[in-house]
Design goal:
heterodimer; A: 113 residues; four-stranded antiparallel sheet; 0% helix; B: globular
Amino acid sequence: DSGVTQTPKHLITATGQRVTLRCSPRSGDLSVYWYQQSLDQGLQFLIHYYNGEERAKGNILERFSAQQFPDLHSELNLSSLELGDSALYFCASSVTEASYGYTFGSGTRLTVV
Amino acid sequence: ILNVEQSPQSLHVQEGDSTNFTCSFPSSNFYALHWYRWETAKSPEALFVMTLNGDEKKKGRISATLNTKEGYSYLYIKGSQPEDSATYLCASSGSADGLTFGKGTHLIIQP
């Protein structure tokens, strides 16, 4: 157990639907990062939150949004889902704002049918 | 946007042999270079974070070097064991942005 908790582990949903992925960072970590891994792609950076504030955005679609709550857990919302959104979504956390090596969760496998 | 390339894509190594693989990254706007080990059905596990040119880090039989001027890093595994089988990911970062990952080197150790 890495200390970073992601739920659910698996999710199957239909096109056009909306889902929420949840991440609880390791105790004491203020930064949360979201990554997407699609078939044959490396891990793609989506978004970074630090202590409740958005810090950086990567290749995140407008249909996707995220937030980090006062208790530091984060949620990634994916809406108007398409088949191509099927992927493994990882959350990672770190103590600092800088990318100084962080701890990954076990991921949420999203399948859009 | 940084482009990180890893080679080879996959590698079969006999148990007991040593091996190494490469990560190349743009040297401009460089902040840190990360190596992760990712076993199937598990989460990526951090191996090393390196920032300085010439950095060399070691963890047991695994070591890594960094050349920021020419934009490459090597990961070495000495005396490969079956438990070393995994995908090894390299990633580069610029300040507070997220990491840019390569597609990984898939290592299979054959008994």
